[in-house]
């Protein structure tokens, strides 16, 4: 069982009962090694991310995660308000229905669970300890059976909804694959009970909903690196090295995109978004960018003729004008 991005105290509590491995995404640890999906069939993500910008990270994970799901693996997401759409889709691939609507829903505990086993026991025991609830998408109806049917048409099994003025928002879902693999989306529970909600998955949910994960016939233990041939291990190492180099380069590109947007894109965006003095500044920046010399008329006359009536906001010239030229032009 692999825990990704979980708090240390939660990891310590879970590991008292179950043997676990841990990993980090590069959204939380910039130099983290590739996540070892190949070694696990049950992977948990604590989807709270410090990096809210790097939308190119972990895109190479999709092929490896697809392999995990094709061999019947299960991924569980605890979705927080610090999780954007790309944090999920970069790993799982494009989920057209996933919107992560708005911000956290308040109060977080006011969910409407669907009475189906084995998920019923999870919310029956711990729904009062939910600390963050995020809508996965919006269904414009207040009718729970209708919302359930809407989810089924998308290939999803609804576990819990949240009722808002605009309709019902699924906040917990199961996405199933023909291979038997699946993805479970859950709200975030308080750290004090989070270890129990994690262990409840292998203890109760997996035996009931994904029993193949514990059938000896699957021989998933053979995928452990301890049983791989030397050349296989060598290639796995090469793959991880390439993935790390690729993600490093993507992170550099994302940082450069953010820098250029801040320095060049944002000033031009203000031409469309701002007004008044902010718009005048944006126009001056744009004119300077294309090589013109710009004079702020208000600033120019502020000292020498503060009462002079000004018909313009800005003057421009192809070369830097002299003071004499400004006075007589």
Q: Helix amount, in percent?
A: 40-55%
The CATH topology assignment of the largest domain is: Rossmann fold
* Integer-rounded radius of gyration: 27 Å
Detail the poorly predicted runs.
Answer: none
Instruction: Specify the overall morphology.
Output: globular
* Assigned CATH class of the largest domain: Alpha Beta
**Average pLDDT reading:** 87
**Protein structure class:** alpha/beta
Q: How far is the N terminus from the C terminus?
A: 77 Å
Give the total of domains.
2
> What series of H and E elements makes up the topology?
EHEEHEHEHEHEEEEHHHEHEH
Counting DSSP E segments of at least 2 residues, the number of strands comes to 12
User: Count the helices. How many?
Assistant: 10
Structure description:
Helix content is 40%, strand content 17%. It is α/β, with parallel strands linked by helices. The chain has two domains: 2-233, Rossmann fold (3-Layer(aba) Sandwich); 274-328, no CATH class. Strand 8 (167-176) and strand 9 form a beta hairpin. The strands form three sheets. An eight-stranded mixed β-sheet has the order 2-1-3-4-9-8-7-5. Strands 6-10 form a two-stranded antiparallel ribbon. It has helices spanning 8-15, 61-70, 85-92, 119-126, 144-153, 194-209, 230-273, 276-289, 297-304, 323-328, and strands at 2-4, 21-23, 42-47, 74-79, 112-113, 130-132, 156-164, 167-176, 182-186, 188-189, 293-296, 314-317.
């Amino acid at each position: 069982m692999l825990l990704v991005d979980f708090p240390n105290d939660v990891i310590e509590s879970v590991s008292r009962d179950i043997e676990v491995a841990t990993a980090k995404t590069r959204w939380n640890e910039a130099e983290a090694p590739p996540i070892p999906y190949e070694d696990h069939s049950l992977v948990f993500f604590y989807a709270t991310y410090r990096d809210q910008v790097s939308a190119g990270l972990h895109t190479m994970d999709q092929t490896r995660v697809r392999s995990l799901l094709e061999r019947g693996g299960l991924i569980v997401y605890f979705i927080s308000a610090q999780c954007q759409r790309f944090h999920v889709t970069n790993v799982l691939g494009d989920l057209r229905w996933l919107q992560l609507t708005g911000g956290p829903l308040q109060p977080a505990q006011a969910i409407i669970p669907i009475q189906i086993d084995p998920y019923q026991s999870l919310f029956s025991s711990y729904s009062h300890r939910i600390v963050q609830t995020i809508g996965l998408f919006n269904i414009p109806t207040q009718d729970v059976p209708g919302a359930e049917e809407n989810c089924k048409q998308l290939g999803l099994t609804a576990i819990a909804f949240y009722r808002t003025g605009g309709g019902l928002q699924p906040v917990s879902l199961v996405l199933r694959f023909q291979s038997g693999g699946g993805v479970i989306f859950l709200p975030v529970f308080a750290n004090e009970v989070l270890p129990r909600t994690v262990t409840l998955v292998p203890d109760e949910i997996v035996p009931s909903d994904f029993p193949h994960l514990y059938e000896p016939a699957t021989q998933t233990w053979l995928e452990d690196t301890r049983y791989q041939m030397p050349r296989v291990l060598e290639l796995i190492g090469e793959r991880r090295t390439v993935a790390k180099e690729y993600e490093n380069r993507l992170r550099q590109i994302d940082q450069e995109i953010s820098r250029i947007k801040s320095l060049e894109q944002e000033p031009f965006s203000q031409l469309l978004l701002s007004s008044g003095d902010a718009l005048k500044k944006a126009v001056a920046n744009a004119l300077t960018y294309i090589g013109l010399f710009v004079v702020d008329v208000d600033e120019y006359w502020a000292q020498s003729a503060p009462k002079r009536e000004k018909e313009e906001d800005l003057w421009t010239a192809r070369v830097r004008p002299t003071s004499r030229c400004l006075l007589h032009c």
